[in-house]
Write a structure and sequence with these properties.
The chain is an alpha/beta fold. It has one domain (7-298): Rossmann fold. Helices cover 39% and strands 9% of the residues. The protein has helices at residues 13-23, 42-49, 68-71, 88-98, 113-118, 133-139, 153-162, 182-186, 188-193, 197-213, 227-232, 234-245, 273-277, 286-298, and strands at residues 7-8, 11-12, 32-36, 55-59, 121-127, 147-150, 223-226. The protein has a five-stranded parallel sheet. The two termini are 31 Å apart.
Length: 314
């Protein structure tokens, strides 16, 4: 990831970002959007897409600790909005995001403020919004279907547990308060019965991903990409995305497809891709795996199992 100076001619970065935000007015329909779970591979694919000329990366605008726009609305960390419901304030907030009006030290983490002034469109990397995909694609008319990157829930849980942001001891599942938390309340008895952090992380994966994965427009109004397929056949998956968009693949994109992302804790691609995809099995014993499988069975998630690769393909 490119290091960004926190001052421009001795002006604090957030002041520069605020000024640039006021000058920006991106066409929201032209943005290239990536949805993913945290630790789901979104940085990797975002870096590849960012090789399209004249693009700037808007970094994780739904991070409630870094961007107060959605925190003020009472958003949960993985907010759900039913597809046909109306939330005008949330719609206006996302319009601000897609027009480039939320630049700060966090959202400019990969691209500098000046990159946004020079760019024709943004690559918007959004974590924790998978349950919002049907609502967002109804409310906004995107010219380029968003990329929905899905990674094995056990691999996501393993990566999160190795990452410092998920270090807190497990004290039981926490049902989020706030608007549209019906999916959590519906399954409250099961969620409160979970006895380990890995079970809770997988349950959260299920609650957020079952919305787009089981939707009738899955892989139609958005491009569903399995992380495992991207690792095993990166050229095919990149070509599929760009064909759907009707855009030419940048000449140098495949040269960088095997490079680890800037946020990877280890090399993204091993010599043996299958070994890379199975690394989560080194963290969990068989009892833990069985308990996580029980979570998948409870939520009737058939796309993944004990195998490292998806059970269902698009």
């Amino acid at each position: 990831m490119r290091k960004i100076a926190y001052t421009v001619k001795n002006i604090p970065l957030n002041i520069v970002c605020h000024a640039v935000s006021r000058a920006c007015s991106f066409n929201l329909a032209e943005n290239l959007i990536v949805f993913s779970d945290p630790r789901g591979g979104s940085t990797w694919i975002t870096e590849l897409i960012n090789r399209i000329p004249d693009t700037a990366v808007l970094w994780e605008p739904l991070h409630l600790a870094e961007v107060n726009l959605f925190r003020k609305l009472g958003f949960a960390w993985r907010q759900f909005i039913p597809e046909d419901d109306e939330w005008p304030e949330a719609e206006r907030a996302f319009e601000q995001v897609f027009r480039g009006k939320v630049l700060n030290h966090w959202t400019c983490r990969m691209s500098s403020p000046m990159d946004f002034l020079r760019s024709e469109r943004m690559v918007v990397k959004i974590c924790r919004a998978n349950a919002l995909i049907p609502w967002l694609t109804r409310v906004f008319s995107f010219r380029y279907e968003p990329v929905y990157l899905v990674r094995h829930p056990f691999a996501v849980a393993a990566s999160q547990m190795k990452h410092g942001s998920w270090d807190a001891p497990f004290t039981g599942y926490s049902i989020p308060d706030g608007r549209f938390n019906e999916p959590y309340r519906t399954h409250a008895d099961f969620l409160l019965s979970l006895g380990s952090k890995e079970e809770a992380l997988v349950a959260t994966w299920c609650l957020t991903n079952m919305v787009p994965l089981t939707h009738k427009d899955n892989n139609r109004k958005w491009i569903t990409v399995f992380y495992e397929n991207l690792v095993l056949s990166p050229g095919n998956e990149i070509q599929r995305i760009f064909q759907r968009w009707g855009l030419q693949i940048p000449e140098n994109i495949l040269e960088h497809v095997n490079c680890p992302s800037a946020t990877a804790k280890e090399n993204m691609i091993d010599a043996d891709a299958q070994t890379q995809l199975s690394k989560w099995k080194l963290l969990f014993d068989q009892q833990q795996i069985e308990r996580m499988l029980e979570v998948l069975r409870y939520f009737t998630i058939d796309h993944y199992s004990e195998d490292a690769v998806p059970s269902i393909q698009m």
